[in-house]
């Protein structure tokens, strides 16, 4: 845990690092981000925390401009002055009703979704791995697409057999043991992705930023099931 040194207090007072404006591109990330922010706020009360959802605009260019300070994303884009700090690896899985025909499959193939209603967050499909890395390469289109804002809402729709949904494995961990839904791997080897914290390079070594990243890492692995550490 980092402690405020006199020089850091002076920098905060001078406005050099008086805020941490966070943007998330991951709807499910509130599950670990909220406890992370609660813990961090106790360590750095002088830092003004703000949070924005990056679902209706492009947050990475805003990070470059300085409008944001940190973006949680699984889609790194090479931009000048931006670095990506890996947080953890996770598996995107398909949630289905326990009585659904796909619930008995050992894994899901793209063609299995051709006759299914795919429930997804209301974001552009080119920001979702289930399309860019699973369905699109196989030239498969779901029968229908339905959107819902909240993870809990999506899970309840799947449980009611209104469709299927691709969600992170850790967001389904609380629902599988009680058989609300069944989670299946997308592809024989699973669809794994890495979640990153995108920050500006000029803030990478700042104590307040280092502590946030450390707190986020600790919180993720204390809170979430099924995630893996990123190995170089």
Provide keyphrases for this structure.
28% helix, D-Maltodextrin-Binding Protein, domain 2, 2 domains, disordered N terminus, single chain, 232 residues, 9 strands, 7 helices, nine-stranded mixed sheet, alpha/beta
- Taken in chain order, the helices and strands follow as HEHEHEEEHEHEHEEH
Q: Superfamily at the CATH H level of the largest domain?
A: Periplasmic binding protein-like II
CATH secondary-structure class of the largest domain: Alpha Beta
Question: Which structural category fits the helices and strands?
Answer: alpha/beta
Assign the CATH topology of the largest domain: D-Maltodextrin-Binding Protein, domain 2
User: Shape from CA axes?
Assistant: globular
The portion of residues assigned to helices is 25-40%
The N- to C-terminal Cα distance equals 24 Å
What is the number of helical segments per DSSP (H or I, 4+ residues)?
A: 7
Q: What low-confidence regions span 5 or more consecutive residues with pLDDT below 50? A: 1-16
- What's the domain count? 2
């Amino acid at each position: 845990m980092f402690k405020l040194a006199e020089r850091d207090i002076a920098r905060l007072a001078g406005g050099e690092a008086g805020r941490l404006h966070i943007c998330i591109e991951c709807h499910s990330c509130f599950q670990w981000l909220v406890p992370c922010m609660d813990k961090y706020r106790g360590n750095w009360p002088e830092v003004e925390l703000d949070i924005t959802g990056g679902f209706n605009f492009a947050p990475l260019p805003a990070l470059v401009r300085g409008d944001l300070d940190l973006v949680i994303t699984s889609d790194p884009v090479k931009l000048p002055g931006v670095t990506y700090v890996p947080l953890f690896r996770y598996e995107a899985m398909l949630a289905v009703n326990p009585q659904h025909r796909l619930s008995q499959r050992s894994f899901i193939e793209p063609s299995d979704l051709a006759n299914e209603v795919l429930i997804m967050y209301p974001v552009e499909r080119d920001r979702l791995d289930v399309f860019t890395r699973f369905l699109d390469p196989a030239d498969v289109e779901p029968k229908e697409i339905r959107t819902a804002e909240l993870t809990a809402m999506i899970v309840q729709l799947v449980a009611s057999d209104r469709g299927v949904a691709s969600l992170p494995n850790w967001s389904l961990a609380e629902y599988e043991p009680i058989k609300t839904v069944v989670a299946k791997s997308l592809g024989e080897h699973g669809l794994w992705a890495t979640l990153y914290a995108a920050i500006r390079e000029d803030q990478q070594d700042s104590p307040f930023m280092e502590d946030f990243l450390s707190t986020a890492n600790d919180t993720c692995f204390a809170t979430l099931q099924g995630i893996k550490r990123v190995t170089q």
